[in-house]
Amino acid sequence: MIREYEQRRNGHDRPVDITAVRRDARVPGGETTALRLLWLLPAQLPCHAVRVEPDRVRLRFEVGAAAAREAVRRALADTALRGWAQE
């Protein structure tokens, strides 16, 4: 993950967007989920919320797509994000 970040800093990668979608209307909406996602992602992972909607959260990562998808997958496995899935 750190290596991919270094590649990005050297211009080898483009930012990648990952979207999480709400699959259960009974769970908290996008605003709460965006905060929880950002909190659960590794601190060294350069990322920010690009768009937050009630049923969708799009995050932009400055690492490779595989590292971004894996980080979001791990965060979404937390019980606080039950009802949300990676698109």
Automatic annotation (TrEMBL):
Protein name per Swiss-Prot or TrEMBL: Uncharacterized protein
Protein's organism: Streptomyces cheonanensis
